[in-house]
Amino acid sequence: MIEKTIEVVNKLGVHARPSAMLVKTATKFRSEFHIEKEGMKVNGKSIMGVMMLAAECGSELNIIIDGPDEEYLLKEIEKLFKEKFGEIE
Amino acid sequence: MKEITLKDFFDKNKNRFALSLITDEKTLNNSITSPHINRPGLALAGFLSRFSADRIQVLGETEIRYLQSLKEDEVYERVKSMFTYRIPCLIVTKGLTLPYIVEYLANEMSITVFSTRLSTVNLYQTLSKYLNTLFAPEMTIHATLIEVYGIGIMLTGKSGIGKSECALDLVHRGHSLVSDDTVKITAIDDNLLGYPAKDFGHFMEIRGVGLVNVERMFGIQRVRQHLKIDMQIELMPWRENMDYERIGLINNFVEHLGINIPITYLPVSPGKNVSVIVEVAAMNFILKNYGYDAAEDYTNKIQEEIKRKSLLRKINISQSHSNS
Q1: What ipTM is given for this predicted complex?
Q2: A16 and B243: CB-CB below 8 Å?
């Protein structure tokens, strides 16, 4: 199991489109994927859950991944956040 | 290219358009090949270079008065040169009397002339509608068409995916069937209409049971003869890693006969209740038509929440800066 804190750096935060991208990526992997924010923990493969976090720019998310391909999934998730979900500023 | 012989046209629509035949029955051999109607005013005035000769020609009060104002030999020349084009037929409205010379020429040159009691405007409207329907592009499609809460839903997908079973379930739940397996579709104006492909009745094949007569089994209120197709639902085998629509913010469309209708790709797996999902899709379609979009509503709420929190964060940061 790996845990990592990731900061939301895209201006618009994790709204509908980024949530869909996260879930789409996560469902390609077998590992379990959870996101925690301010005590609320949701399943990262469920779009309703991820959207509900309403993670704004500058907030920090605790990523918890557990499974055989956890490292690969983490890499992809980090990449999504780092690339600001393709957001144009 | 579609066509209808004048004999057929006359026999079927005598009453509908209040028609009577002025010329000889021998002239009924021509065919109508165009869905359009023309008023040959300019052609009668001698301007024939852009004459739409393939259309039904309608003579109203204006044209008849004009012909009456001409000398007999002028009428003869003008009408003769118009008739040298192979026009399908002439219809005189309001039961007006045609100059005898025109009738004579029509018989001689074997051009059909009808008379109608309808006014020009009335004839134009009803005849146009009839011709548009008659000449509308059509095709048959491998699909099942069903009405759910008043919404026309065309189910598509590979053979064996469960279109008929889904339709049967929907009929059982009180919805009505137009056609199973093969649907005839036509495009009229901006609407896509669907019909049973054949008039054999509403049969469907249920694997393991065989043929079922839906009308006999469920009653006349569970079948329909035609329906406007509002949306398409494509059933597809559920596959892992496949990219299914999760929120519904993206609307996909599919084109049939030049008309776009929304399409939903629905993954099907054993034990999944597809008919309930089809009902939900229909209700969501109705809500969207009434201006409510659940996906939009929910994501807007999320966006507002994100904005509010970003604002709070900025305020907190600037406060901690000023404190230090």
Answers
A1: 0.80
A2: no
